Write the structure tokens for this entry.
Amino acid sequence: MRELVVSSRVVVPAHELTWRFSRSSGPGGQSVNTSDTRAELSFDVLRTTALSPLLRERALQRLGTRLVDGVLTITASEHRSQLRNREAALTRMGETLRAAVAPPAAPRKRTRPTKAARERRLADKHRRGDVKRLRGRAHDD
């Protein structure tokens, strides 16, 4: 097993990752009923030493609905070989943790519309009102 590199500062050691394998549904030919190709990767976010307290708290908050007793589980069964499913599970676990420990986005700086933008908006409103006002009336001339 190898460690999981989440970011340049966060690396999850291999001993904190737990693997389980089971039979996968779907195509597989003659080996479908005999080989355990479905890979299940679990990571205990609550008790890990790979994350600082700040990152752990951020991950617990963002992954709250996906955690069961503080454990995040990723399942991969889209490939026919166990090795490719393991790689897919590791990749998805890395992406998930990367998004969970990412710093929050900077707050949006409020700006005001320019004078020209306000004038364009009002001109469009007047034009639309004129179209509606002139619609559907028969003029007696």
Notes: Residues 82-101 form the longest helix (20 residues).
